[in-house]
Amino acid sequence: MNWITNYVRPRLNSMLGRREMPENLWIKCPETGEMVFHRDLEDNQWVIPASGYHMKISAADRLKHFFDNGVYEVLANPDVPVDPLKFRDQKKYTDRLRENKAKTGLDDSIVNALGSLEGMPIVACLHDFNFMGGSLGIAAGEAIVQGFMTAIEKNRPMVLFATSGGARMQEGILSLMQLPRTTVAVEMLKEAGLPYIVVLTNPTTGGVSASYAMLGDVHIAEPGAVIGFAGARVIEQTIREKLPEGFQRSEYLLEHGMVDMVVHRQELRPTIARLLRMLMKQPAAGLQLPAPDTAEKPADTEPAEAEAEKAPEPAETT
């Protein structure tokens, strides 16, 4: 026990009224090194104002900015078996789950929520990268399927925000089985005639990109997001060639036809709302179509009289 650190310093701080400053008040931009005050970064949806770098954002923060007035209802995730393989690496899998639940306050890496987007009721399904890298396991797969089933039941479109390192290795082949299960759920939503929009964020890799994250009607990517199956280093070692600059970034994928558009985080709300109205054949926001005039009008006889007046007079004969 350090007597000075654990006893003397707290006593002095309490006597002098000094407060310990949190370590995360200022956040450094990974690209430029700029220091940004954390409150300013939160207000800007975790996008560095100067460089435009999109930092990772929690599911709760994204929902707060995405839904109308920040109002939404979170769906409870279904109960699933925990640690079916009794997996252990440096520590028990159950201990890892317990630590991540305490750190994030989430049951697993998936959050489903009901809310409105510019007045349209939708279902949103989000990965949270803070929970074991947004990895896909039994609980996450079951939650995704539940989100799609809720959208079908309530006749609402689905918007999915993907960010993941892939399938969860601690669950082995059971995590890989979530790929076909979620793919079937996507097909059921499409058979119901409901739109499915995917927002690919940094990073979206592994089995997630090999299944439901690439099956949307429209694929939107945030700027600079890493999107792909295998990592760039693994690909370079396999093909023994240097990859192009910006490989697997959202701008590169847009140029090569892998995504439909790259949209800034602050423009996602109006962009997705506009796409949903187009897909659901609804009028644009604020556009009111005139009501059809069903009143019966009296027969119009004026045109005939006007034509008679305009008829040329017969020529005089001498």
Short description:
By secondary structure, this protein is α/β, with parallel strands linked by helices. The chain has 12 helices and 9 strands. The strands form 2 sheets. Strands 3-4-5-6-7-8-9 form a 7-stranded mixed sheet, sandwiched between helices. A two-stranded antiparallel ribbon has the order 1-2.
Q: Would you mind describing this structure in some detail?
A:
A hairpin with a 2-residue loop joins β4 and β5. This protein is 36% helix and 15% strand. The mean pLDDT is 88. A seven-stranded mixed beta sheet has the order 3-4-5-6-7-8-9, sandwiched between helices. A two-stranded antiparallel sheet has the order 1-2. It is of the alpha/beta class. The chain is globular.
